[in-house]
Design brief:
Helix content: 10-25%
Largest sheet: 8 strands, antiparallel
Strand order of the largest sheet: 8-7-6-5-4-3-10-9
Number of strands: 20
CATH superfamily of the largest domain: Mog1/PsbP, alpha/beta/alpha sandwich
Distance between the termini: 98 Å
Radius of gyration: 40 Å
CATH architecture of the largest domain: 3-Layer(aba) Sandwich
Shape: rod-shaped
Structural class: alpha+beta
Number of domains: 3
Oligomer: single chain
Length: 367
């Protein structure tokens, strides 16, 4: 027989009795109700334990997230690769076989003098060399060929093809482009080698013109290669050690693209301060400018940022004033020299010629 103590008077009695024999307390009813309450207490305890566990999990998640944010602050965002920002474009230019003579039997290979004393070399390897009095329009290694009794030369810097009737003594070159004025070339009794070995220079003290027609430019110890279409125009930047500008212009299509390099004393800037510095930099060139948020990149191993920009040409661009432009500005810190380097690459928005990928190739060439 199970014995219990009365909760009121403490008398020892059987657990089966209805009331306490000493004080009359309803013992059976009391213990019956107590047994019914126990499961509820277990449910409450389980609920409390669940809440505690949920709270602990939440705290762990918050701690992990906070730690991740702290880690991100300690390690700047991963830079976008130049290949992702500027995918290399495959050339779609038609490749024309080198044909320096046809069934007419006329051999036009040789050296010619133009109306304004320019020298045109039609080399037997199918490459033409146009030495202009104004050095910025000198064309090197331009494809030339003979077809149906006509001589064709593809000029990359002038964005046009010129054509003349094949003749051993005189070539009158014409073009449908406003970039070329009809010009007569008279053959000289000299060998092409006399001109193909000439040393070429540009106006800019930090740039050089290569025999393949490209431009090499060095700023702040970093070397860049610009394609043949870009010209080193004679301008105020030529004698400056910290600034240079190069132009690609198609007069006929009113198209203009340019690359401007500049270095200044500085320090590493974050995305926000880089955007502010870029905005200040381009405000001297363009009106009504818009600058996007900056993307982290690397140029020649140096960390920096790239922003997309848009605006309108100011009065420094004469007849192209108020033309809409779009492009990019890159700002990076050169740890070796403690200089900030700006590279601004823009083009008129009519997109008759799209140099977007060309700009990317200039950045990729940096070393």
């Amino acid at each position: 027989m199970k014995l219990i103590n009365c909760p009121v008077c403490g008398t020892r009695c059987s657990a089966d009795v209805e009331k306490c024999p000493e004080c009359g307390f309803e013992i059976k009813e009391y213990f019956t109700e107590k047994e019914q309450v126990k499961p509820k207490k277990k449910g409450i305890v389980a609920l409390v334990v669940g809440i505690v566990l949920l709270t602990l999990v939440t705290l762990l998640v918050i701690c992990f997230t906070t730690q991740k944010k702290i880690s991100n602050l300690s390690h700047p965002e991963t830079a976008e690769s130049l290949d992702e920002l500027f995918p290399s474009s495959e050339s779609t230019t038609e490749i024309i076989p080198v044909t320096t003579s046809d069934n007419t039997g006329i051999d036009v290979s040789g050296v010619y003098s133009g109306d304004d004393h320019e020298i045109l070399v039609l080399n037997s390897d199918g490459l033409a060399y146009y030495y202009c009095v104004s050095i910025e329009f000198t064309e090197l290694q331009c494809p030339w060929y003979v077809k149906d009794g006509n001589v064709y030369i593809d000029f990359s810097r002038l964005h046009c093809t010129v054509v003349a009737k094949a003749d051993e003594n005189e070539l009158l070159f014409k073009s449908g482009s406003a970039n070329w004025n009809t010009e007569l070339f008279t053959r000289l009794d000299v060998e092409p080698e006399q001109y193909l070995t000439k040393a070429l220079s540009t106006h800019d003290q930090n740039a050089s013109l290569n025999y393949d027609g490209t431009l090499t430019y060095i700023l702040d110890g970093i070397t860049y290669t610009l394609p043949k279409s870009f010209v080193d125009m004679e301008d105020d930047f030529d004698t400056m050690e910290d600034t240079s500008a190069f132009i690609d212009q198609d007069v006929q299509s009113n198209y203009l693209s340019s690359v401007v390099f500049k270095k200044v004393n500085g320090s590493y800037l974050d995305a926000t301060s880089s955007k502010e510095a870029i905005t200040t930099f381009i405000s001297g060139f363009y009106n009504d400018i818009t600058v996007s948020d900056c993307t982290a990149i690397e140029v020649a191993g140096h960390k920096g940022y790239l922003c997309e920009i848009s605006g309108y040409l100011n009065n420094g661009f004469n007849r192209l004033e108020n033309y809409e432009i779009t492009g990019f500005v890159v700002l990076f810190y050169n740890e070796t020299t403690s200089n900030n380097n700006f590279i601004m690459m823009v083009q008129s928005s009519n997109r008759d010629i799209d140099n977007t990928n060309t700009f990317g190739e200039i950045l990729k060439s940096a070393h």
